[in-house]
Input
Amino acid sequence: MRNRSHRQEVKTITEYITANTTMPPFFPYPRFLLKMDLSQTAKLLYALLLDRSTLSQKNGWQDNEGRTYIVYPIAEIAEILDKSTMTIQNSLKELDIAGLLERERRGFSAPNRLYVKVPEVVKVSLDMTQRNLDVSPKENCTSDTKKTLPMIQRKLYPNQLNINKLKESQRMGASGEPPAPYGKYQNVFLTESEYAELKQEYPDCLERLIEEMSRYIASSGNDYVSHAATLYRWADREKKENLKKGIPDYSYKEGESL
Output
């Protein structure tokens, strides 16, 4: 009787999930966070900010470029996550360095804008490859010895096709040239022409961006469909952000003088 009453008491606190159970509110937790080299607080903070971003999407909080932003005081975040403000500030820096967050200062007494970002990556996973590889008996064939052997047909689903295209593009590059490895971890692949064009266009920041990409790929296990296209995008975005902050553009192309 004692065990039975205890079981009934626990039942009032938690319930088994059934087909009709109303789920409690929860944060979206992207799977790519599981493989990222971030603290658990930074991962939880990203989930919280991503949840707030969905609310901003619905309320039409977009800037002139159509980018969704949020306003979230650090003190409020610290209270929700039960962390100190210093811990939250450090976690914000982690997300900033990882490229998952951009903070825009709005001047004295104006709240800062937070732009939550999602990585444009294709995860190359052997587990995913195995899951998407459907091996099923298709038909029987009879050999000369009259033994029946199963014929195996393997179906490649869209995810697997994307993985194959990614591997092929990294081996040959968009122009068909064999790429060379760059970066500290030798995992950023650019053809000779891609590197030359990037170097001519962005001589002042290319090497730094290559190193940032190399560290990100090595730490997260993720990869980009096109390393050259991503570097162009990063450099263009950085240039626009500097102009917004009032930082003069002193960049120059190779062969030019200031």
User: Anything to note?
Assistant: Residues 5-11, 122-167 have pLDDT under 50 and may be disordered. Residues 64 and 244 are 12 Å apart (CA to CA). The first strand starts at residue 101 and ends at 104.
